[in-house]
Amino acid sequence: MKPKRNTLTDAELLILLEGDVSDVDLDMSDDELDLVSNRNEHAVPTSPVAPGLESEMIEVRVGKEEDLDDMPLSLRLQMSLCGDAEVQVVPAKSHSGSRCNLRWHMKDIEEVNAVCNTSFSDPPDEEITPFEYFKKMCRDEVIENFVKQSNLYCVQKTGRPLNTNKNEMEQFLGIHIMAGIVNMPSYRMYWADTTRFDPVADVMSRNRFDSMRNYFHINDNSKMKARNDPEYDKLFKVRPFVDSIKSSFREIEVEEYNSVDELIIPFKGRSSLKQYVRNKPHKWGIKVFARAGSSGIVYDLEVYVGKGTVKNVSPLGISGDIVLRLVDGLPKGQNYKVFTDNWFTSFSLMCALKEIGILALGTVRMSRLPGCSLEKDEGLKKLGRGANDYRTEAGTNITALKWYDNKPVYLVSSYKGRHPVETVKRWSVAERRYVEVPRPAMVKEYNCHMGGVDLQDMLVALYRTNIGVKRYYLRIVFHLLDMCVVNA
After folding, report:
1. What DSSP assignment string belongs to 47-95?
2. Which of 115, 180, 432, 449 supports an S-S bond with 463, CB 3.0-4.6 Å?
3. Cis peptide before 420, with omega less than 30 degrees from 0?
């Protein structure tokens, strides 16, 4: 009986290099080895395919000789096994299940015309005050609706009218905005003898303020549908106000650079809208998705209500659908740019935005780059901070980049590439000093233009309307009013 041999085939070596030994049988008979060798003589060497990728085409092309230094060892071995072949193809399948051909090159993005040819209109002849800008967003129709619904709600609850009017309602809202600037532990202290604040106390009595606050309303409760109704709206109580604010925000002339992100309206009371977001300063609250410019001006928003947040559901999932919904107001085909974080970004979203004429860049999760093989963390870590690897998809000219700083960061872009790579100073905890780190152009572009929504949220937090109520819809109303103040 012949002794068993432990020789590994080329395919098994590839699997070992990729770090997966679960499919390798190290104990094979001579007959089995002969079968494997005969099969390998007629087979095209392939690399291990990521989970969930089965029928999509991944192509790796050999670029210049210096590109080989940045290529994972397993890919270099595959190309050496292919001999003179320039292209290596692996079957894979996209997450949506559709068949397509993705071919990732080891080269930078081809030059894209990213010039935005639009400009802002001329400023008005007469200077407009911040209050006038505020009135353009919180219009008279909104105030009149507050008056009408508050009077109606008071009659429904007590049988007596509230008898408020537009002027008094504006004073009521103004007191809340002023209270965000001059904070006191209790709103009653604005009228107390020892802590009286004349700008508030002289405008309205405390008892009248209590009545206004108790019966302040936005929509007619008698028209609200039952919870089991298919057309039930979780935002019914604030729907007219939210729609009006969204409409006025969309009328603002947009900037070239926009970002889509989430923010939290702080709230710890009872509501089906309440969410927990671990990485936010206020972890409990009502989630809002917003599109803002680099200046911090919000141009559109969508309150998260769970299922039904977006009406047009697509294979992109809720994260991609929200981005497509928020960019509705952007002019198409004029090279406006949108930045997203890794909760929203995917290769499919980049393609969808590119098809409608919007350029995009964002951080991304590696699982959302089907078929893209980038250098492993260990390889980049050995090269030091700032090491990076990149691929460009041939059919769409979309570039994926992995940049290793303190930890790996993945980015994908439809208009900005890796080059030029510049050197920046970053703090090193180990060395306790600033060190020079290479930074690709994609990383710089993302850092410059991504923080619009966070900037808006920070400015709102400086003088947030502190309304301590259990009614969740009042938190939404006064947060949107604070956003109008910041926009103005």
Report:
1. PPPPTT--S-BEEEE---GGGGGGS-HHHHHHHHHTTT--EEEE----T
2. 180
3. yes
Evaluate if residue 484 carries a pLDDT over 80: yes
Range of the domain at 100: 10-105
In a domain? residue 70 = yes
**Cβ partners under 8 Å of residue 355, min gap 6:** none
Domain-located, residue 30: yes
Total domains in the chain come to 1
Rg value, the chain, Cα = 29
Q: Is residue 435 part of a domain?
A: no
Separation between Cα atoms, residue 294 and residue 480, nearest integer Å: 19
**Beta strand pairing call for 87-90 and 58-61:** antiparallel
Model pLDDT, residue 354: 93
Confidence of residue 441 (pLDDT cuts 50, 70, 90): very high
- Secondary structure (3-state) at 274: strand
Question: Rounded distance, CA 161 to CA 154, Å?
Answer: 6
Query: Which residue is associated with the tokens 């930074």?
Result: 439
In this structure, the number of other CB atoms found within 10 A of the CB of residue 305 comes to 15
Residue 362 in domain: no
CA-CA distances (angstroms) from residue 357 to 290, 327, 328, 401, 461? Answer: 20, 11, 12, 22, 35
Query: Left, alpha or beta for 480 (phi > 0: left; psi -120 to 50: alpha)?
Result: alpha
pLDDT band at 56 (very low <50, low <70, confident <90, very high): very low
Per the CB < 8 A criterion, the answer to whether 300 and 306 are in contact is no
The H-assigned helical ranges of 182-218 are 198-201, 206-215
Amino acid at 253: E
